[in-house]
């Protein structure tokens, strides 16, 4: 990657900053699945995690480096504080990648130096230079971030960046860590860096914007206008606090407004050359996968990938769309791989038609996964009058999601409820050891009764913090997707499942969340033993 990149490099941090969303905890298999999809999407850099944070994070970075970081694949990156142990661990985890990158960072704002680091400016200057050089010993590609750069005194920021570049940094990333800036301020910040850091032309200039004021995407685009050529972003904009700049928003803004952005890259206004390497038809599929595995639902009015993004209810808008699509749509749904909500299959459809339609929707399943999904399709088709593409997607994602090895399996759910009876649930599960257990419980409602019974069987302390239901399609026979979050100590774990019976979906979603918690507790126990 040359210092003067002629396109925008997409640096995806869904698996690092995105996973810092409360409840978005992912296991290694889930991170791998997302990483493979990010590679299909065409991202340039995958920040696979924070290798030193935990044994699980280390293994995730290591597995992604080995399996996704192939010669023609994306750069695989690990975050590391400007600390020798962090950098050593990151380098070890990245050994299997064809193109590894260490991303090291240290705070530079006065408020961080005083209250968090408790270090002087001169100490931070020395550490930044020393640790970038140390990272350079392990890999050729080193990214440096001055944390809270947007609130750092400019002259000091310039000094830190100049030292980091001199020590061997190849990418300089400017984080608006607390989402404080406006687009104009971001533009001024980038201009100041380009004018006052003597060796800035030796590196790729990058931006990382947070969404605390809802300005992450606008700020990232303003940075691009002012010479930034790498954008750090996440799928669906998930991340710490209010989240990050959303990858899909950045990419589609560059595509839809290409004539506006072309001159900033020295191109003719009407140039049709893409401004980034993203395969936009993979956006919707990637968005759904991240939503399912993290349990982070997409708000209906979310730009680009929300359920209402291409919906028109106003009569005036509908009339305009009928007459000419561009009256009220600036992009086509097909541009992001969004399928039309068409009825194509029913209970009499065969396996080949099912397989063919899934391929059209972008799903390439193994024979085993296809069999599971087809059997579930037949079950649901018997209950529903009509099967839409949305139903098919929910079924496939439900049946092929990565179940945790040695977890609890739900065998049977039976509920009795009504206005003149006490809600009662009978639950049968199979334990990780293979034992079959059954118990019954009463509750304030059918779902509460189910959860009470499951808790009696599983016996893992937890607190239900969120329960939500979302209809996949319209109609009384629609599939419903249930998302739950449970808390244990200070951590949040999520689960998701779909069914025409909301109580059944709620039971499976709860078991999925409990299995994430169970896996976490197992990992913690193993770590304690090894220590």
UniProtKB/TrEMBL annotation:
Keyword field: Acyltransferase, Amino-acid biosynthesis, Branched-chain amino acid biosynthesis, Cytoplasm, Leucine biosynthesis, Manganese, Metal-binding, Transferase
Ranges where the record places region Regulatory domain: 409-531
GO biological process: L-leucine biosynthetic process
UniProt-recorded name of the protein: 2-isopropylmalate synthase
Pyruvate carboxyltransferase domain mapped to chain residues: 8-279
Family: Belongs to the alpha-IPM synthase/homocitrate synthase family. LeuA type 1 subfamily.
EC number(s) per entry: 2.3.3.13
Catalyzed reactions: 3-methyl-2-oxobutanoate + acetyl-CoA + H2O = (2S)-2-isopropylmalate + CoA + H(+); acetyl-CoA + 2-oxoglutarate + H2O = (2R)-homocitrate + CoA + H(+)
GO CC terms in record: cytoplasm
Subunit field text: Homodimer.
Keyword presence, Acyltransferase: yes
SMART domains registered for this protein in UniProt: LeuA_dimer
GO MF annotation: an example: 2-isopropylmalate synthase activity
Pathway where it operates: Amino-acid biosynthesis; L-leucine biosynthesis; L-leucine from 3-methyl-2-oxobutanoate: step 1/4
Xref: NCBIfam families: leuA_bact (TIGR00973), PRK00915.1-3 (NF002086)
Reported function: Catalyzes the condensation of the acetyl group of acetyl-CoA with 3-methyl-2-oxobutanoate (2-ketoisovalerate) to form 3-carboxy-3-hydroxy-4-methylpentanoate (2-isopropylmalate). This protein is a Fe-Mo-cofactor biosynthetic component.
Enzyme class (EC, first level): transferase
